[in-house]
Amino acid sequence: MAWMYILKCADGSFYVRPTIKLESRLFQHQQGTGAIYTSQRLPVELVYCEEYQNVAEAFAREKQVQNWSHAKREALVQRSFQKLSGLSNKKFKNNELPRGKPRGITDRNTQEHAQKAAGYSSSRNSGINNPRTIEDQDASVSIRTSLRSVLLDHLLKQYEL
């Protein structure tokens, strides 16, 4: 299983990424070792996630959501799905052109990038030789609680319970 997740940073911005280990990635983000972007905007909170069968699907969804405006991401996080289509026309600044897929990107490159993004080969964030402290354990409990809440919401929505 793979996940596309959205974190809300302390400055109000959203961070969108895929992963195969959601709980450990959240822990890394809370500790400031998950990504440079989030480490400079702590604390971060898991506000949305979607589950996929494989990393490629999660990576494709991440790329889609990353190109959305802040308002459209906010609507997704708030599960205001009826607002999404009305927010689909992105407003560009100063006649800026939308970014497209760079030339030379192949499916193999995309898959390798998805695996790196999901933490397959990230030795910097692996946690090896980095034992947890009591503070780390407290943060881990908080992350698990947050994760359970978002996952429960996801399951309730998926199965219409």
General description of the model:
The protein has a domain at 1-81 and 132-161: GIY-YIG endonuclease, CATH 3.40.1440. It is 46% helix and 13% strand. The chain has seven helices and three strands; from the N terminus they run ββααβααααα. The protein has helices spanning 22-31, 36-39, 55-66, 70-77, 81-84, 107-117, 134-158; strands at residues 2-8, 14-19, 45-52. It has a three-stranded antiparallel sheet with strand order 2-1-3, sandwiched between helices. Helix 3 packs across helix 6 (107-117). It starts with a strand and ends with a helix.
Sum this structure up briefly.
By secondary structure, the chain is of the alpha+beta class.
Helix content: 40-55%
Return the CATH topology of the domain at 1-81 and 132-161: GIY-YIG endonuclease
Regions with little confidence, pLDDT below 50 for 5+ residues:
101-110, 117-134
The strand order across the widest sheet is 2-1-3
Order of helix and strand elements from N to C terminus: EEHHEHHHHH
| Backbone shape | globular
Instruction: Please tell me how large the radius of gyration is.
Output: 17 Å
